[in-house]
Design goal:
This protein is α+β, with helices and mostly antiparallel strands. It has helices spanning about 10, 20-30, 55-60, 75-85, 100-110, 125-130, 135-155, 165-175, 240-255, 265-275, and strands spanning about 15-20, 35-40, 45-50, 65-70, 90-95, 115-120, 180, 185-190, 210-215, 220, 225, 225-235, 290, 300, 315-320, 320-325, 330, 335-340, 345. The strands form six sheets. The chain has a six-stranded mixed beta sheet. The structure holds zinc ion (ZN) (2 copies). One zinc ion binds near residues 226, 290, 317 and 319.
Length: about 350
């Protein structure tokens, strides 16, 4: 909480009601599944959670008061009740992105006299874009575990395996190597199914002489990682090898464009321009990447319309891809950390289109 860079006065609020669990964790260290915190302009912070987390909240949050709420499951309502009891008259900023209509109805009914709720979007999220040393270290651990789990699982690939077997193997290896779990539903697709950018692993066998797309991320110490690699299980067509080279060229061009002060949109453009020159830009149907940290998708978006200027300490993915129905798709994704002079590629896994 002491790190919170927010000018309460110029935003015209006296307190922030934080209801995104990732924001709560960022500010207080609390990792439970139900919680909210109220940060007052003088820095005083109260964490609200339910009785399941009495012991845990006490251990994890030492920077302020913990209130255990028994009467409601809605911790934002507990925060308003706290303000009422303490006779605080507050203009309370809250993030509409993390407030349901149902919760808002309850809060409106419980709002103490003299208090007001004021929408205040993305305050903590904006700060979370730039990682401190401890966060960078956690992301590095997550990235290394993710890559090691990938290598271990790849060593066990057999053509008769199902896509879901390989996904299970990767997630099992992640946990063995120190992750608390996958950062998202592991994507394993083989053959023509690689044309689905977010393919769910099915019970289809991998087969021989096919391309496999694996998009995988881990969570370790709360922080995520994200990587996509392509493998050739047996031999694959010259056309697919050619397209792989094209996507790799686009990916390297985007990585080259990453540095402090550069707009997120121009990194996206760097990848898109390479594919455009090859007549492939129509097949590149998503953005070039995204920030990651406590969540696997955070700001900034590496896409044309994102106006964010990159800053040292931001961590983003670079993942151009092309997808051809009936043939297959190719995506190559690394996690990189922005530095003052460029970026550091955190992902150690080789980008060779390996035949196994
Ligand atoms: Zn990914
Ligand atoms: Zn990604």
């Amino acid at each position: 909480v002491r790190k919170l860079q927010f000018d309460f006065a110029s935003a015209g609020v006296d307190a922030l009601l934080v209801t995104s669990l990732h924001d709560v964790r960022y500010l207080t260290g609390f990792t439970g599944s139900n919680g909210a915190c109220l940060v007052l302009a003088d820095g005083r912070t109260v964490l609200f959670t339910d009785p399941r987390y009495t012991i845990q909240a006490g251990l994890e949050f030492r920077g302020g008061e913990v209130r255990i709420e028994k009467k409601t499951r809605l911790m934002a309502a507990a925060a308003l009740e706290y303000a009422r009891k303490k006779r605080l008259r507050l203009r309370i900023g809250f993030d509409p992105n993390y407030m349901t209509v149902a919760a808002m109805e309850v809060l409106a009914a419980k709002l103490p006299a003299g208090c007001k709720l004021v929408p205040q979007r993305g305050v903590v999220e904006a700060q979370r874009m730039v990682k401190d040393e401890a966060e960078l270290a956690a992301i590095r651990r997550s990235v290394l575990t993710n890559s090691a789990a990938f290598e271990a699982a790849v060593a066990r690939i057999r053509p008769e395996m199902r896509e879901s077997d390989l996904a299970a193997e990767i997630e099992y290896q992640q946990r063995l190597l120190g992750a608390s779990g996958p950062a998202f539903e592991t994507i394993v697709a083989s053959g023509a199914r690689t044309a689905l950018p977010h393919a769910r692993p099915t019970d289809a066998v991998l087969g021989a002489n096919v391309v496999i797309l694996i998009d995988v991320g881990a969570v370790q110490d709360g922080y995520t990682s994200d990587m996509t690699r392509m493998l050739a299980l047996g031999s694959v067509s010259r056309r697919m090898r050619g397209l792989y080279k094209d996507v790799l060229e686009a990916q390297l061009a985007a990585i080259d464009a990453v540095r402090e002060g550069v707009g997120a949109g121009s990194v996206d453009r760097a990848a898109r321009n390479v594919l455009k020159a090859k007549g492939l830009s129509e097949l590149f149907t998503h953005s070039t990447g995204h920030g990651l940290g406590l969540e696997v998708h955070e700001s900034p978006g590496i896409r044309q319309k994102d106006k964010t200027k990159l800053r040292a300490g931001m961590v983003v993915t670079i993942e151009p891809g092309i997808y051809i129905e009936g043939l297959g798709g190719i995506r190559i994704e690394d996690t990189v950390a922005v530095t003052s002079h460029g970026c550091e590629i955190l992902t150690p896994t080789s980008k060779e289109f390996k035949q196994i």
